[in-house]
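Sample pair:
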Amino acid sequence: MALFVLVKKTNIICDGNRSAASFLGGAFPVEAALPELKKRLGHGVGAILVAPPGAGKTTVVPLALLEEAWMVGKKIILLEPRRLAARAAAYRMSDMLGEPVGNTVGYRVRMDSKVGPRTRVEAVTEGILTRRIQNDPELEDVGLVVFDEFHERSIHADTGLALCLDVRSALRPDLRILVMSATLDTESLQGPLNDIPVVAAEGKIHPVDTVYASKDLGFPVASGVAEAVSTSLRETSGDILVFLPGAGEIRQVQQRLAEKKPGNNVGVVPLYGLLPKRAQDEAIRPSPEGARKVVLATSIAETSLTIEGVRAVVDSGFSRVPRFDVGSGMTRLETIRVTRDSADQRRGRAGRTGPGVCYRLYTEQTLRGSPLRRRPEILNADLAPLALELAHWGASDPRELSWVDPPPEAAYAEARKLLFQLGAVDENGRITPHGKEMCRAGLHPRLSHMVLEAKAMGEGELACRLAAFLERRDFILQGAGPRDSDIRTRMEILEAVLNDRPSAGVGVSFDHAACRAMRKEIAHFKRQFAIRSEPVDIARTGVLLAMAYPDRIGMKRPGSDRRYLLSNGRGACFPDIEPLCAEELIVAPHLDGAETETSIFLAAPLSIRDLERHFPHRFERTRSVRFDDATRGVSALERVRFGALTVDEKKIPNPGQQEVARALLEGIRRNGIRTLPWDKKLENWMARVAFLGRVFGQEETSSAPAWPDMSDEALLDSLEDWLLPFIAGVGRLDRIKPPDLKAALENMLTWKQKKDLERLAPSHFTVPSGSRIPVDYKSGEQPVLAVRLQEMFGLAQHPTVADGKSKLLLHLLSPAHRPVQITGDLAGFWKKTYHDVKKDLKGRYPKHPWPEDPANAEPTSRRKKTG
C-alpha cells in the first residue's frame, strides 16, 4: 500500500451499544461508576464525569439519576453540542426505555422539539438552555443540568455553565451540575466549579489499528481522501466514516468517489450540521444487510453520537473553526490541523462496536507536534450574541460571572460596540427594549435587528429569507459563467424554489436540499417575529443587509475596478472582476476577515439615497482644516461621512485665519521643527541666545528675565506662543521665510535682552588685525573663533565674551587657513607652543611674519613686505 505505513495497534475503544433490554444490566461500562456518581451528587451539588467514548455516559447516566431522592419532581436538562447529537441521544434513551420520544425523554432543538407533560429528561442544544434560563431564572422544575462532551468547549456550553453557576449561587443552591466528557482538562474546571469531585469510568476495549500516511495530506484534499477511501473499501469490511474540514470538501469527495464508481452496494452520504434532518438521519442509520456505506462528515461526527456499523475511519487531519478578528470585527473560517484530542476522538469511531482501522492522512510526527486540545470557542468567537445574552441577564460586565475561560476583553468590547450601534444596549451596556426583542429571537444580533427593523417597514418576509440564508451559507451557486457574489441572485432562486417554479438561474446549479431546509427556517422566523406573508422586493436586499451590517458598507476606491473601503475603516476587494464591481456602494455580509485587505464573497448594492433615507442618524458632517503633508499646505474641507466613508466633500472657501494658522502648526508639529525654512544665519542667532541661557541661566530672577530655550523640543512645544502670532493667514509652509522666523524668535526677547545679546554674545569678534571674524556658537558648549594666527599677534590676554564669563575657544589657523592649534589659553600658547609651530610652518610660509615675541608683535592680515 503506497499511501500508508502501518505503525501500531492500540486499544482505546469501549463497547457501548446495547439494546434497551440490557439497560443497567452490566452492559454499559459507565455503570461501574454510577454508585460513586450518585453518592457525590447526593451529598453535593456537582460532579465531573470522565468516561471514554462508548461508555454510555450520554444515555445511561441521565436515566440512572432520574429516581434519586433529590430528583423527585424535577427534570434533567442534557446539553449536547449539536442538534444531531441531541436528537440521537433522545431517541436512544427512549428506545432503551421502550417508549416513544416525547414521553420520559424528549428533546428541544432549534425549530424542532418532542416533549410532553411526562417528559423528565430533555436533550437540548445551541441556545435552548440559555433561553430557558433567561425565561425562568430559577429553573424551578430542573434538578440537574448535564453538560455533555464539554471538552468541545462550545461558547454555548461555556455560557450555559456560567449562567447555571450564577443561578445556583443566587437562587437555587440545590441545583446540581454534572459535566461529562471523554477527554477533559479537569484541572481547569475545578476552579469555577469550586473543586467539585471527579468521577472516572473505565470502558471495554476494542482494538483499533492506526495507519499513518507516509507524508501529510495537503490542499486540496479531495483526491487524497478519495484514494484513501478506495483503499479502505478494499482492505476493510463494514462502513467507513471520513472526516473532512467542511461541506465544500464533502461535495468534492462525493464527486471524486462517484467518478471512481465504488460499487452498487456502496452508498456515499454526507453528514454536516446544516444538512436537513432527514439527510442527517440517513447518514447515521445502519446500512441494509449486504450493503456498505461511506459517511463523509465534518467534526460533527467526532463525539456524542454513534454511526452504526462503522469499522474504519479515514481522517483527513483537518478541521474548520471560526476565528473572530477583533481588529476587523469579522469572523472567518480557518482550516487548521486536527488537535490530538480530536484525532483520538476520530480514531475511536472505528472501534465502537468491534475491532477497526483508522487511516490517518498525516504522519505520526505531525500528530505529535499538534496541540493537545482544541482552543475554547469563547476565545475565538464573535462575542456579540454572548454580550447580548449577558446584558439581558443583567450582567453587563462578564467578570460578574464565573468562567472556565473568561471572554477576551478586546473582543467583548468590540461586541458591545456593535450592540450599541444596533440599539441593543445603551452607553452603559444595559439592555434596551429593542435589545430584549432581539434576544428573544435567538438569531445573531445583526440578523434579529435586521428582521425587526424590516418588519416595521413592511419588508419582514425578505428579511426572514435573508436571515435564513445568512444563517446557513451553504447555498452555493456553481456554473461556467463569471463569478457571482450578488446575494440577490440567491434570493431570486430561493423565490423560485419557495414558489415551486423553475429557477431563473440559467447555467447554474445550487443546493436544492439547502433551499428546502431554508423554507422551514423562514417559516420559523416568521412565526417568531409574527410576520405575515407579503410581497418581496429583492431590489431592497442591500438596504436590509445594511441594517444588519452597518460596519460593512463599502464605497469603491477612486481609480479601482474592484477595491472598496468599508465603513469600519477596513479595505475589501472582490477576488475577481464581476458585475457587482460596477457598483459604487455595496454592503458585504460575507468576508474572509483577512488582516490586510479582506475578500468579498457575498454582497449587494445600495445607494446613497438609501443610506440617507434609512440611516440619517449615522451621517456626520465634519469641518476639517488640516495640514496636508503631500502639498505642504493647509486644506479646508467640509465632509459628510458615514463611518469611515466620505460620501460628500467640498472646499471651504474662506476658512478663518486662526484655523489655518493652527492647522499649519499641527503640520509643523507632526513633521518636526526642521520643516521650517531655517538658514545658517538664523541658526547661529538662536545658538547665541542658547549660549547666554547656558551662561546666565534660563530661570527668571528678580533682576533679569530668563533667556528663552531655543532647543528644537522647546520650540516645538511652544509653537502657539512664538510662531502663531506671525503666521495669520499663511496657508503654506513655503510662504514662511527666514526673516519671518527671525522676527518671531526675536519677539521672545525683551528689549534689554536684544541689546545684551549684541554685547554679550556678539556675532563677530574684532581681532588685533582689525578684522571682524564671525563667532561660531553652534559647534559646542564654548563659542569658537577661527582666526589666522598672524591676526592675533599683539594680544597677550585670551579673548572672552559674556562679560568675561566665557572664553572664546580659539581655532588658530595657518596662512592657508588650515588648523594649527586649538587653545583656550592664548598667553600659554605664545609662551609654550608657538615656537614649535613656528619651526614647523616658517619654512612653508616664508613670506609671512614669524616674530620672536608674538604677544607684543604687530598683527597683520597680509604677507610681510619684501624689499
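The chain has a mean pLDDT of 87.
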